[in-house]
Amino acid sequence: xxxxxxxxxxxxxxxxxxxxxxxxxxxxxxxxxxxxxxxxxxxxxxxxxxxxxxxxxxxxxxxxxxxxxxxxxxxxxxxxxxxxxxxxxxxxxxxxxxxxxxxxxxxxxxxxxxxxxxxxxxxxxxxxxxxxxxxxxxxxxxxxxxxxxxxxxxxxxxxxxxxxxxxxxxxxxxxxxxxxxxxxxxxxxxxxxxxxxxxxxxxxxxxxxxxxxxxxxxxxxxxxxxxxxxxxxxxxxxxxxxxxxxxxxxxxxxxxxxxxxxxxxxxxxxxxxxxxxxxxxxxxxxxxx
Length: 289
Prior knowledge:
Elements: H1 2-22, H2 27-53, E1 54-61, E2 65-67, H3 68-73, E3 81-91, E4 97-107, E5 115-126, E6 132-141, E7 152-154, H4 168-188, H5 190-197, E8 198-205, E9 212-213, H6 215-224, E10 227-238, E11 244-255, E12 258-270, E13 276-285
Parallel strand pairs: 1-6, 3-7, 8-13
Antiparallel strand pairs: 1-2, 3-4, 4-5, 5-6, 8-9, 10-11, 11-12, 12-13
């Protein structure tokens, strides 16, 4: 009987995998997940919304990375309202990994002076029922934007769809090695590293500033602000189709004469030559030593 039950579970899991792979990846799926998350927060409050949307291993940065379930279960609640609006999103070819990014407004009061503005980044992972759950969320604060950002939602090339790797740890090792290589390169030359690793349309999220788009603009900002970075990889993950991945870790950034500590999250995409490029990088400030 136990063998029959085990066989049935394997068959059901295989069917779910085949169905998931046969459905074309649609970026609207993750946009809908993001908007659904926002509605959950409206209905249940910030604490209830995060707990309802979280993947079992999902993390937030408060300021150190902590499991969503651990953080929100151990607080009475989080006052105020939070409204998020996505303007940037991608989904992996196999549809199991995706991200959204956009603007947010947090308000803990009744008038406009109580509003806090910024941008957020959310990483999503499909569960066994092919439903997106929140894997990672963090953001930056900056002054209110003068104009709304243009939306950039793009579907992947369905021709790149692949069967899941027989060695699921292989892809993670590769993206970890790539992140480590970038971090080593940063210690030698920050500008040269971004020129080599940042996608031409890559985005850069730095506290106090609105997100920057494009390699030239990011490098100009780094140069003008006198920024140098040293960083260390903590962990990584990637899609089964090996076209979208994320890494996160610790960074120490010198900006002029000021040295501060940050957590970083990077989202990577693979290009036609099979080279991994940074599509998005966000820094979350933490306490200085």
